Amino acid sequence: MMDRRLLLALPLLPLAGRAYADPPPGRGQGRGNQGGNQGGGQGQGQGRGNQGGGPPGFAPDTSSLVRNWQAANPGWSPRPLPPGQMRQLARGRPLPPGIARQQVPPGLVSQLPVHPGYSYAMIGTSLVLLGSNNLVVDIVANLF
């Protein structure tokens, strides 16, 4: 009896392995889940851009654009956040209450793409794109 069930289940085995190997849509590598912090430090958010009419995001070259701007403006640097606060920052969630946020310098904002209805903020050493109700749309972490 046991051998018969095993023989019947054997053809399904490759399908079961594949279900465990492929992450669900939107949960794979690349953008990452930012390791529990949802934005605390692995350079996530790079590579999304605004492809296909979805919500806007940062282009792959955003971090180099910001670093070039900083090299030309060495007197400006953001205030870092305590690690516990940085871990609370999450893509797809509203900004945590009480998190310190700085205005992005006008010279840098002028170099970033315009997304009507969205705004940029510096949160610690990360550049964040915010939607309505301060919803975190995308993050480029550890820029400075």
Automatic annotation (TrEMBL):
Residues 61-71 have a biased composition (Polar residues). Residues 27-56 have a biased composition (Gly residues). Residues 1-21 form the signal peptide. Residues 19-101 are annotated as: Disordered. Keywords: Signal. It comes from the Bacteria. This is RcnB family protein. It comes from Neoroseomonas marina.
